[in-house]
Design goal:
The protein is of the alpha+beta class. It contains five helices and twelve strands.
């Protein structure tokens, strides 16, 4: 129960004028978001855009107001980026939307499959192996023959609120199995207790009891889907340093983004309705 406020203030609040039609909202999946000036510097120097992008911040939310609407579409199409070693997801929004109602937990991440036997280094195995990790969107085509690097790679849609899957077992011809592990590109901050991104083990907000049930529920879902679970030695930790992104260098901590590669459907600049 509460009162209904009908009459707006006589003087509107002094908020910046935002063109929401050409804006997207981003949020870091991290306990320590980067500051606005750093993000602005990355966008200006590491993003290839069609026009300028103004960045505004309120709380943990960052508004990217694009001068060119095609840049806005391209950011939404990209969905996820890595800035300062932290994953940021992008969503569309509008002036009357409540920020807390937007779900930023779904992210697109490139995942590598390492330690595969020779006969599994084939394009068709990528989607099969990673289908239980998330929704496979793009499988990297390695072409004919052996891949350039001895691993498979795909872009998948994952829920960052759930523990990452460290790897899986693969059968061999002699009845034995081999463990293959996953490397999540763009994941530089990872908890080896709960298996989630966005914080280190020493700052995990969950108790050991909650972590046990979270991970147990995650792997129980595989059994419900008819998959067989295998367990390694008891003293072996489930989550290790093998779950990490690329080497911790500036170029990998701040993804270079080319927004001009994305061409929206019915782009008037492409189909002749406008001239530049």
């Amino acid at each position: 129960m509460g009162v209904f406020i009908q009459n707006p203030p006589s003087q509107p609040p002094r908020l910046p004028n935002i063109e929401w039609t050409y804006s997207v909202v981003g949020r870091f999946f991290d306990f320590a978001p980067s500051n606005t000036s750093f993000i602005t510097n990355i966008v200006n120097n590491h993003w290839i855009t069609r026009g300028s992008i103004r960045i505004l911040r309120t709380g943990d939310y960052f508004i990217f107001e694009c001068q060119d609407p095609r840049d806005c579409d391209a950011i939404l199409n990209r969905h996820t980026s890595v800035i300062d070693g932290k994953l940021m997801t992008f969503r569309s929004s509008f002036a009357n939307q409540v920020p807390s109602s937007i779900n930023f937990s779904l992210a697109t991440i490139w995942v590598r499959i390492h330690n595969l036997p020779w006969r599994f280094l084939e394009h068709e195995w990528t989607a099969k192996i990673l289908s239980h990790v998330g929704v496979v969107e793009v499988v990297e085509d390695t072409g004919p023959g052996l891949p350039h690097e001895a691993f498979l790679r795909a872009k998948i849609l994952v829920d960052l609120t759930r523990p990452l899957i460290p790897g899986c077992f693969m059968p061999l011809d002699d009845g034995q199995v081999v463990w293959v592990y996953f490397r999540y590109e763009g994941v530089f901050k990872f908890c080896k207790q709960c298996g989630c991104v966005g914080h280190h083990t020493g700052h995990c907000p969950m108790s050991a009891y909650d972590v046990h049930h979270l991970i147990h529920r995650r792997f129980s879902e595989f059994e419900h889907d008819g998959l067989t679970l295998m367990f390694g030695p008891i003293e072996t930790p489930l989550y290790t340093n093998l779950i990490r992104g690329l080497p911790d260098r500036f170029v990998y901590r701040n993804a270079r983004v080319d927004l001009t590669r994305f061409v929206p459907a019915h782009d008037p600049y492409v189909f002749g309705e406008r001239h530049v």
